[in-house]
Amino acid sequence: MSTVSLPASSSAPRRRRRRRRHVPWGVYALLAIFSVLFLFPIYYLVVGSFETPADTLNGLRAAAPSHLTFANYHSLSQQFFSSTITGSLQGFYTVSTLVSLIVVVGGMIVNSLAGYALARMKFRGRKTLLLLIIVLVIIPFQAIAVPLYYMLSGLRNTVVVQALPFIGSAFSVYLFYTFFLNLPPQLEEAARIDGAGPWRTFLQIILPNAKPAFASVAILSFIQIWSSYLWPLMMTSQPNVYPLSIAIGNLLKQQSTPNYGEMFAFGVLLVVPMAAFFLVFQRWFIRSVASLAVKG
Amino acid sequence: MVTLTSPVPQRRRRKIWTESRVGLTMLIPGIVLIVVFMLIPFFYSVWLSLHVEIVGSNIPIRSVGLLFYRHLFTDPIFRGIFLKSLENNGIFALVVVPVQTGLAMFLAILVNRNGAFVKFCRTTFFLPVVFPMVLTSLIWKAILAPGPAGMLNAALRVVTFGHFTPQYWLGNVHLALPSIIVLSIWQGTGFQMVIFLAGLQGIPSSHYEAALIDGASRWHLFRDVTLPGLRNTTIFVVMVTTIFSLQVFDQVYLLTQGGPLNATSSVMYLAVSQAYVANNVGQGAAISVVLSFIILLLSLIQRQVLRERVD
User: Fold this and answer.
1) pLDDT in tens, B114-150
2) Which among B45, B138, B204 has CB closest to A146?
3) Whose CA, among A80, A215, A238, B169, lies 20 to 30 Å from A132?
4) Quick check: B243 and A48 CB within 8 A?
5) Which residues pair with B63 in a beta bridge?
6) Owning domain of residue A46
7) C-alpha B189: how far from its chain's center?
8) What is the C-alpha to C-alpha distance for residues A112 and B155, in angstroms, rounded to an integer?
9) pTM for this one?
10) Do A170 and B114 touch (CB under 8 A)?
11) Which of A39, A69, A99 is the last residue of a domain?
């Protein structure tokens, strides 16, 4: 697993070093144009959430509003007043957070153990299991969503069912497997000479050396589960177990004349935890995605 | 495994045995979850696609063989929708894969340098990746809103000095799929860019230096050093993007429900709407199975292409 060193001074071509004073204005201009294109929808979301309904959908003037208001956030909290009838903002947050926690923490535990066993332990059927994992990485969740819906229909409208199918993940197992495979075996040999059993070796020697792999799996599975839509759409019909994505999706689908300001406010609430998390742990986010490149 | 005549000493044999027991204990939780929630559903979907079941009725479940698969290609009404969805997925992939891969590579090359502004841009390009598709759909629904009040319509009007006629982007048979494509590219490019960035940093700087000594121009550096150095990364990105393109669901469901006139219907949207909305489970399962095999086939091709490189 490669770790990306940012910024990339080591691989910068010599050419640039030779012309140290040369400022690549062309590159900066292109970057500026693309930044505006990429940032604009986000800017629109944030600004629009503080505008009156008449201003949010008002051509270019929506991007430069005359005055800002908290009215959308206020009306959201009034609209979702009861946890059982309409669902409450607090409730949506709680469900999304709980589901993400179960998937991320549970997934790190079971998938790292499985990946470690596949990489380091000797047992019959290891190769077959590995092949199975590799094939299962490819199968998209959507392709098994329908049968899964029938298998788990007894658990509809619970928090657990929203997390259950995603804890064990062939993809995470594979990520851990490749990471552990590249770890020097001397680590374990040293531990074994000191008389440590396999479990203690894993907990005290392997875990501290596998932080990048754990961060990758945690971040990638968090992005995926926090954004998931199809599965909770199938499995929930009661507002008290709606995650954020379903609550906001319903708002988007139900309104025939959409109140964008209000929906934008909801959208901001949905993305703020994720965006804040990303900005703080940016290095790790980028590393975890970059680590995928080695796979194949 | 170990025969009686094996010279393996007692101690060693016991060690292997305990190790395999510990190994299995470590494996079991993860493997059980994966088998129960991935493997079994997959076989169940194959089974469902071969049987007919009227949900909530007393009519017994009946085996129908390959009926649902034949339906996909022969049923006069359904065939049209299925082929149209397949075609939409194809167009989506044919546009998104090259455009998004190219754009991601281009942006990765641009941000592969130092500086505060460059760092800011890197963050900016990656930021949409943490936006759930529900939210992306919501923002773009407003940007693409019909009439002169829509953001994109208003912007195009200004750029063309008032000559642009406002379009109903998501309601027009010719514009709906391109609109879905644009918002998908906005959301997905940052992810691929970061993978390319890692690929770029894996190219040894000595390759660039050697090329520079040979007097290579900037274009030649790109063609002879950067591009070959990114070969495996590109194959990986192309395959992942293709697979993602075949799974498009959320944005279609939220923004157009496959409309107008099936112009944006995707295979996955069709499968889910058949099984879940139309209660035609077998048909939905059959579509899922077909899609899984297409994806499996593409992945096998990817492995083959990657292996050629190693040989």
Assistant:
1) 889 999 999 999 999 989 999 999 999 999 998 888 8
2) B45
3) A215
4) no
5) B51
6) 22-69
7) 12
8) 50
9) 0.85
10) no
11) A69
